[in-house]
Amino acid sequence: MRIKIALNATPLLAPLTGIGYYIASLLEQLHGFEELETYPFYGATWLRPPGKVMRLSMAAIHRLLRVLPQGPITAVRSAQQQAFDWGTSRYGFTLYHEPNYCPLEFHGPTVVTVCDLSFIRFPETMPLERLRHLERCMPNAVARAAHILVISEFTKNELIALLGVPPDRITVTHPGVRPHFRPRSEAEIAPLLRQY
User: Fold this and answer.
1) What pLDDT score was predicted for residue 24?
2) What's the rounded Cα separation, in Å, for the pair 8 and 11?
3) Segments in the chain below pLDDT 50
4) Burial of 91 (0-12, 13-18, 19+ CB in 10 A)
5) Orientation angle between helical segments 153-163 and 128-144, nearest 10 degrees
6) Burial track 38-56 (b if 16+ CB lie within 10 A, e otherwise)
7) Which of 106, 112, 97 is nearest to 145 (CA)?
8) Is the pTM of this model over 0.90?
9) Residue 40 and residue 114: Cα distance in Å, rounded?
10) Count of alpha carbons within 13 Å of 25, Cβ hemisphere only?
């Protein structure tokens, strides 16, 4: 039996941040497993990847941004929830993975990725609307999640200490490193060293 995974890939629509790169790499890697079918959700629409899908074209992004509501996070989430519900009823997903903290409603097992808890430790570093959204959603997100993925032991310990998550509900999955991040030979770095 193939496992059908709903994956919220909406952060790929904006300029890529750490979570966007995480999602792009995850989509690329999950495509290699025959027993998995991954369906990326882009905030207003579902795409079934025909191969290596990392980002939408700029034209597709502009079309989606015209469809997506603008304004407060709660209004945007409400519209996204409707599009998400349509896809979940149509495709019959086995599992939902939310890589960006706050999952949409899903009647089935949900896995949530939490990269850090900076909104608790350093609330001054983010816009107020996003901070309020995370404060509202995170307690429910970690309580509802079938399992939580974190990118470090530090974040695991923060979840346990700050949100009271039992350790057996958390798995540390260190992010991978793309092949171009590697030690360089002397011949490769010599021109750069001469330049500077």
Assistant:
1) 87
2) 8
3) 50-56, 58, 69
4) middle
5) 90
6) bbbbbbbbbeebeeebbeb
7) 112
8) no
9) 18
10) 14
Helix or strand holding residue 110 (H, E): strand 110-114
Nearest to 25 by CA among 3, 7, 42, 37: 7
The helix (run of H) or strand (run of E) holding residue 172 is strand 170-172
Q: Which two tokens stand for residue 164?
A: 């009271």
Q: How far apart are CA 109 and CA 94, in angstroms?
A: 7
pLDDT the model gives residue 63: 56
CA 80 – CA 25 distance, rounded (Å): 23
How many angstroms separate the CA atoms of 19 and 7, rounded? 13
Closest by CA to 65, choosing from 53, 56, 52, is: 56
Note the pLDDT of residue 54.
42
**Tell me, what's the pLDDT at 129?**
85
Measured in residues, the chain has a length of 196
Tokens standing for 20?
A: 């966007």
